[in-house]
Structures are given as C-alpha cells and as structure tokens.
C-alpha cells in the first residue's frame, strides 16, 4: 500500500466524528491563504481527519515540504486560546529537545480569508505509535518508553517553571 493510501486509512480509522458535518470551507481560499503566507504555490489540499474541535488538512506545494492546516471547528474559538497554543508550541521548540511542528502562520479569529481560525504548521514525519506497537521488538518498546519518560520528566523540570 502506498503512503498516501496508508495515511488516509490511518486517519479514517482514527477519526470518531466522520458523521458530523464538516466545516464550510472554501478549499481554493485555503490554498490561496497558504500560498500567500508561505510564499509557495499550494497545488493540492485534502482533509486528513476531523475531531470534535479541529479538522486537519494536508497542503501540498509545487516546491518545498508539505504543511498541515489545523482548522478550528468552533468559529467562536477564543483567539487567546489559539495564541496560548501557538506560544506553547514555540516555547517547547525553543527550550526543550521535544520535536514539535514549527508554526508558519496562524489566526485565531474568523477575520481572515478562510473565515475560520487556523494554524499552518510543519508536517512532521512518522507514524502513529499505536499502529506499529505490536510489531516492535522488546528493545524498541523499551526505547520508546524511555523517550516518553524523558519527555514527561522534562515537563516537570525547571524549563516549565514560571514565576510571576
């Protein structure tokens, strides 16, 4: 099975709200927005999945890497919450070794060309752990669990201690 079909199957099987209505989204407007903000021509857009709070789209470009568009299903999503999520992602990227997607652009309001709060971010490579866990050797599982523990311990470290 090729990667695109495999990816579609993964997201289809993991999405629990496929019977819910999708966002009223103009895909051409999303492509134009991404092209404008990333200074690259977006040639293809497709929805990967949706959940209760967001729809996730894969954006492909003529040149350069793909990117992900995370669109809020709540058009009244508080802009401050979006700002906090973006700031947290940037803080983690700058102050830890945890790999988080780079945020290319975002708008937490409906006052933008697609009229939906969005985040355009880097697409990270990889697979869902639950899909490959049973195939991993004991040594690989230990390595994965060690990385998870390291990440959780890092969250408890001084990196995330703020004082007012």
General description of the model:
- With 164 residues, the chain is an alpha+beta fold.
- It has 2 domains: 3-126, Phosphorylase Kinase, domain 1 (2-Layer Sandwich), CATH 3.30.200.20; 128-164, no CATH class.
- Helices cover 38% and strands 20% of the residues.
- The chain contains 5 helices and 5 strands; from the N terminus they run H-H-E-E-E-H-E-E-H-H.
- The protein has a 5-stranded antiparallel beta sheet.
- A hairpin with a 3-residue loop joins strand 1 (42-50) and strand 2 (54-61).
- The chain is globular, with a radius of gyration of 18 Å.
What's this, in brief?
The chain is α+β, with helices and mostly antiparallel strands. The chain has five helices and five strands, in the order ααβββαββαα.
Looking at the structure, the CATH topology of the largest domain is Phosphorylase Kinase, domain 1
Tell me the fraction of residues in β-strands, as a range. Answer: 15-25%
- Domain count: the total is 2
Count of runs of 4 or more consecutive helical residues: 5
Span from first to last CA? 53 Å
Say which CATH homologous superfamily of the largest domain is assigned: Phosphorylase Kinase, domain 1
* Topology, number of strands: 5
**Under the CATH scheme, which architecture of the largest domain would be assigned?**
2-Layer Sandwich
Structural class, judged by helices and strands? Answer: alpha+beta
The major β-sheet equals: 5 strands, antiparallel
Helix content: 25-40%
